[in-house]
Amino acid sequence: MTLLDSSRVNRSIAPDPCTTPRATAVDHHAGAGAATPAISINRVSRAFGAGAQRIVALDGVDLTVQRHEFVSLLGASGCGKSTLLNILAGLDRPSAGSAAVDGRVGLMFQESALFPWLTVRKNVETALRLRGMPRRERTGRADQLLESVHLAGFGDRRPHELSGGMRQRAALARALAQGAEVLLMDEPFGALDAITREILHGEVERQWSEHALTIVFVTHDVREAVRLGDRVVLLSSRPGRVVAQFDVDLERPRSLDSADVNDLASAITAELHREVRRHAG
Predict the structure, then answer these.
(1) Residue 275 — very low, low, confident or very high, per pLDDT cuts 50/70/90?
(2) Staple 167 to which of 112, 136, 158, 206, CB 3.0 to 4.6 Å?
(3) Per the domain annotation, does 161 fall within a domain?
């Protein structure tokens, strides 16, 4: 498991000097005088390998995410969604272009990635310790965070004693313990059953609203993307490029079963299928 250094703010991710980037122009989406966005991605490309084995995962991605925006990132398998999140988290570097994140970053994976030998409370306290919080304050703050995700009374349990949904709630509490202002979520509910996912959708939405978080949420599920996002960004099949964006102008809270969510999801699904067919052809 990787706990991100939450002290990193106003962080720019430059190209990897060990790669040979192609020349790219910087495209600033925010106009003069506009508020600084939480995330700015300018012509980002990422390639792996060399020669005949070279694979281009991302190619010239441009994307701006405003503060407190909830962006769902959607695309076929292998389109570079996770690669882009890793770049934003500072776990990888682009081959070309640049990315900047203005705010403390938290990262959630499909698996909770909790330390199995620690209690749930100690997992949260670890993030607080990395932030420099004094020991005498950690337990109380950890319990507050666990209560905020409806895990009060479970602090002394080990991760294996919790259900999958509860483990993801604990992972969310740990992300909040990092002081996350920008939360990067890589298919965090993909392995959960439908009922648990719906419960956690509401929980993430509540935390997003209460903590004024900026969220980039990677998913394969189109309805989930619409259910949660202010905007759905569609990446092409490999190499990943932004090929479409959909504003989700639907009142919150939303339901996966609502007609409005399903209508927009159907339109996005049709575009996704066209993109997959284009790539296959």
Answers:
(1) confident
(2) 112
(3) yes
